[in-house]
UniProtKB/TrEMBL annotation:
<keyword id="KW-0378">Hydrolase</keyword>
<feature type="domain" description="Formamidopyrimidine-DNA glycosylase catalytic">
    <location>
        <begin position="2"/>
        <end position="122"/>
    </location>
</feature>
<dbReference type="InterPro" id="IPR012319">
    <property type="entry name" value="FPG_cat"/>
</dbReference>
<dbReference type="InterPro" id="IPR010663">
    <property type="entry name" value="Znf_FPG/IleRS"/>
</dbReference>
<dbReference type="Pfam" id="PF01149">
    <property type="entry name" value="Fapy_DNA_glyco"/>
</dbReference>
<keyword id="KW-0326">Glycosidase</keyword>
<dbReference type="GO" id="GO:0140078">
    <property type="term" value="F:class I DNA-(apurinic or apyrimidinic site) endonuclease activity"/>
</dbReference>
<keyword id="KW-0863">Zinc-finger</keyword>
<feature type="domain" description="FPG-type">
    <location>
        <begin position="242"/>
        <end position="276"/>
    </location>
</feature>
<dbReference type="InterPro" id="IPR015886">
    <property type="entry name" value="H2TH_FPG"/>
</dbReference>
<dbReference type="Pfam" id="PF06827">
    <property type="entry name" value="zf-FPG_IleRS"/>
</dbReference>
<protein>
    <submittedName>
        <fullName>Formamidopyrimidine-DNA glycosylase</fullName>
        <ecNumber>3.2.2.23</ecNumber>
        <ecNumber>4.2.99.18</ecNumber>
    </submittedName>
</protein>
<dbReference type="GO" id="GO:0006284">
    <property type="term" value="P:base-excision repair"/>
</dbReference>
<keyword id="KW-0456">Lyase</keyword>
<dbReference type="InterPro" id="IPR000214">
    <property type="entry name" value="Znf_DNA_glyclase/AP_lyase"/>
</dbReference>
<dbReference type="GO" id="GO:0003684">
    <property type="term" value="F:damaged DNA binding"/>
</dbReference>
<keyword id="KW-0862">Zinc</keyword>
Length: 281
């Protein structure tokens, strides 16, 4: 799942390459991605990209006429860049395990990008709106820990006193924007907090550690991903993980074994020694 550090790197990349360029052509392969049927992406042909920004896990391309193309990446969506978009379209069929191309957007200099999805169902969505908040998911976003203005008060409003598992709260976009399964595991490991602990049961010391870990984990990852080519971001993210995706490996803090367990429709990785007092979840 794309999370804020990688989406920020993607936005930075698009800002360097797409801003100042006009849309020459839009080819939508999978029409289910269009969430504003009266204003499809093809309506942007001829308009010039003026800015690229991020809202949580969402990409926002602004245009000279005031409109925005908002791309909600969903669970498996991504954007692939091509210096020669026509050559990419004419290339041999992709491998069976390659992400599906949902739309192809060509720019006036011959470059362009593809909206892709690697899942078994389409999770990516595209909106053409006058204001990004017209996209429902953006309208509901909570404060973002990557934002320098993010405060302890923002964190406390999202967490303190809630009778809900803390890992779920960290991934709840309406409470804290931009964090998904991977970084929530990393945050909880850094804070030495169990993923199944209810927020209401956390004492003041645990809340202090969790706030510090949330801010440092997200901001450090944003800094680390800056400048990484967008086709290498997934690998860079995976390599940086200390516990997420590392079940059966050794905890880099205590030397114990990292464990995995099912949590709702997903999984979580944690260190029993560091986070659960030795208990196996």
């Amino acid at each position: 799942m794309p999370e804020s550090p990688e989406v920020q790197a993607l936005v930075d990349f698009l800002g360097e390459r797409a801003v100042g360029r006009s849309i020459r052509d839009v080819d939508v392969v999978e029409f289910r991605i269009i969430k504003t049927r009266a204003r499809p992406p093809a309506s942007l042909v001829g308009d010039r990209v003026s800015a690229a920004s991020r809202h949580g896990k969402h990409v926002d391309l602004a245009f000279d006429d005031g409109r925005h193309l908002v791309v909600s990446l969903g669970r498996h969506g991504w954007i692939a860049w091509h210096d020669d978009i026509a050559a990419a379209a004419d290339a041999d069929p992709p491998a069976d395990d390659a992400p599906a191309v949902l739309a192809r957007i060509a720019l006036d200099d011959g470059s362009g990008f593809e909206l892709t999805d690697a899942g078994s169902w389409v999770s990516l969505g595209a909106f053409v709106v006058d204001d990004p908040s017209e996209a429902p998911a953006i309208a509901k976003l909570g404060p973002d820990p990557a934002d320098p203005a993010y405060s302890r008060a923002d964190f406390d409003r999202a967490v303190v006193g809630r009778r809900k598992q803390i890992k779920a709260i960290l991934q709840e976009q309406e409470s804290i924007a931009g964090i998904g399964n991977a970084y929530s595991d990393e945050i909880l490991h850094t804070a030495k907090v169990s993923p199944v602990a209810h927020a209401a049961a956390l004492d003041a010391d645990a809340l202090d550690r969790l706030y510090a870990a949330t801010v440092s984990t997200v901001r450090d990852a944003v800094a680390a991903r800056h400048g990484v080519p967008i086709d290498q971001l997934k690998a860079a993210k995976t390599a940086a993980m200390r516990v997420h995706g590392r079940a059966g490996e050794t905890c880099p803090v205590c030397g114990g074994e990292i464990r995995e367990f099912s949590l709702g429709s997903t999984t979580a990785e944690y260190c029993p020694t560091c986070q659960t007092g030795g208990a196996i979840l």
